[in-house]
Amino acid sequence: MIEVTAGVIQRNGLFLIARRAPGKSLEGYWEFPGGKVEAGETHEYAWPEN
Fold first, then answer.
1. d(CA 26, CA 46)
2. Tally of domains in the chain
3. Beta bridge partners of 18
4. pLDDT confidence of 6, banded at 50, 70, 90?
5. Which of 34-37's residues contact partners 24+ apart within 8 Å by CB, and which partners?
6. How much is the pLDDT for 46?
7. 14 CB neighbour count, 10 Å cutoff
8. What is the structure's pLDDT at 27?
9. Structural domain of 47
10. What is the pLDDT of residues 29-48, one digit of tens each?
11. What are the tens digits of pLDDT across the range 7-28?
12. pLDDT exceeds 70 at position 50
């Protein structure tokens, strides 16, 4: 099992989503921002910008 976090951000009827980068699995697909939780991490720290 892989534990992940995700965020759903909505403002004025619009949602923040990201497109997966070229070379990554499922490249070009759209997703909500988030990240995998590694051993010893908190859910907040698992976000990509940390």
1. 20
2. 1
3. 31
4. confident
5. 34/4, 34/5, 34/6, 34/7, 35/4, 35/5, 36/2, 36/3, 36/4, 37/3, 37/4, 37/5
6. 77
7. 8
8. 95
9. 1-50
10. 999 988 888 888 888 877 66
11. 899 999 999 999 999 998 999 9
12. no
Nearest residue to 30 (alpha-carbon basis) of 15, 21, 17: 17
Closest by CA to 6, choosing from 22, 21, 16, is 16
Residue (of 47, 20, 25, 22) closest to 36 by Cα position: 47
Q: 5, 37 in Cβ contact below 8 A?
A: yes
DSSP 19: E
7 with 33: CB under 8 angstroms?
yes
> Any idea what the CATH number is for the domain that residue 21 is in?
3.90.79.10
